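Quick one before lunch.
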Amino acid sequence: MIIKDEYDVVVVGAGPAGSSTALAIARSGLDVLIVDRNQELGCPKRCGEGFGDYALNQIGLKRNEKWVDQYINGALLYAPNGKKIVMDYGKDVGYIIDRKKFDKWLALEACKAGAQIQTKTIVDGIIKESDFVKGIHAKFLSEHFDIRAKVVVAADGAESTIAKKAGMKIPSSPNFFDSGFQYEMAGIDLEDKKKLEFYFGQKIAPGGYIWIFPKGEDRANVGIGISAENSRTAKAYLDKFIKTNRKFEKGSIIEVNGGAIPLGGVMHDMVMNGLLVVGDAAHQINPLHGGGLAESIIAGKIAGTVISDAIAKNDVSRRGLSNYNRIWWKERGNKLKNLEKAKTLFEKLSDRQLNTLANELDKKKIEEITSGNLSKLMKLISKLAIVGIKEKLGF
Amino acid sequence: MIINKEKCLKCGGCVSVCPVQALKLESELKCDNDKCIKCKACINFCPVGALKLEVSK
Ligand SMILES: Cc1cc2nc3c(=O)[nH]c(=O)nc-3n(C[C@H](O)[C@H](O)[C@H](O)COP(=O)(O)OP(=O)(O)OC[C@H]3O[C@@H](n4cnc5c(N)ncnc54)[C@H](O)[C@@H]3O)c2cc1C
Ligand code: SF4
Ligand code: SF4
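Model of the flavin-adenine dinucleotide complex:
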């Protein structure tokens, strides 16, 4: 092993949250190590890969063609009765990325800034001394070792075992997770190669939706997210959808993905002495559409800045790190909390209510509304969903 | 807990919803049956139906 046994900061998880956090820390000149249990960064992918420019701009990076698979100029939304709403922006507003390339690229940006990284390294314990987290127990292949650090960052995704091991309370109620399942497919007869497709309905995807995210030519991520407490599996719903839809007749399954999507359960307290939790591990995900890439990257920047500051001031206690709670809630938390309320209402809508909602959206001719980026498009969906729900429920 | 290794995607979703951290995903998924409280949260969550409780004889 090349790595040392002591760092200023150890980041567990080389996903977008971990790499973004490490990038901010490395930029401040501190010594930071990222470890990830995966053999190869970004693999296996657990993602529909929908993304936009906004978050990267926030951390001073630019889109890179090598990980863009397909530019997107809008979306097709399908109500349970098959009614289609076209949202066409007439220009590119987002893109579908290749997470395997993207995660590697972002991790390497952190390395370029001075971070070190080691894959195939499982963190299986936390060093804790007099109520302070002081480092990690880990293994590389089968070699066991300890690394000490002033701060440990738990960026280990939805499982969030690192923070749990350290003794932090992480929401685990199934109410806060969608069960996600996806095929990357080729040979599909896509309706519009530049539009995302969403299918809603309690019989199609109870409490969630099915998505088709084009990945260039005849390829796409075809996936589903449904509430975790369901008598049938996410796979069963997706298989039924694919079997009954002619566009998949000649399709091939070229990859199978699954995963938990932590929708809701944003945390008020994400720090303890010497430890901070970020990304999916802290439920920092847009609860309405399940997009977590942008949230992870933005939260990583906030976390990294606060950690660098705390180390400079020689106070990595929970008090020293608590600015992270404050800044994140101000910039992202309140918004996500509101969307969480919308999500709770949305997932309960019956198919009839969803059909009505689709009619109202049509009246407002939302497809004519133009906007700047994918996140705005998502914002619009959220807003309209809330309006429809309020009217429907009579308040 | 019976884990069907042929079905399991190693996606870690079940680990997220387990209230007592009985499940662990490293090179493969393992369940500590002494910790498990048989709440079935993981079974209901699993996107491919790879988990089931032991059938008592
Ligand atoms: C099916 C599905 C579809 C999705 N679609 C989209 C989408 O289209 N757009 C979007 O924006 N978001 C989407 N998301 C959400 C998005 O994938 C996540 O929000 C994002 O990956 C979160 O990043 P992260 O860095 O917090 O966690 P992750 O990307 O999960 O990274 C965590 C890393 O930690 C590592 N790790 C875990 N435990 C340990 C350990 N003990 N030791 C060492 N390393 C460890 C893992 O190997 C992993 O690499 C989707 C999620 C799912 C499940
Ligand atoms: S949720 Fe199912 S597929 Fe995913 S790791 Fe657990 S048992 Fe395997
Ligand atoms: S049944 Fe409940 S306690 Fe047992 S492994 Fe599954 S989620 Fe954990």
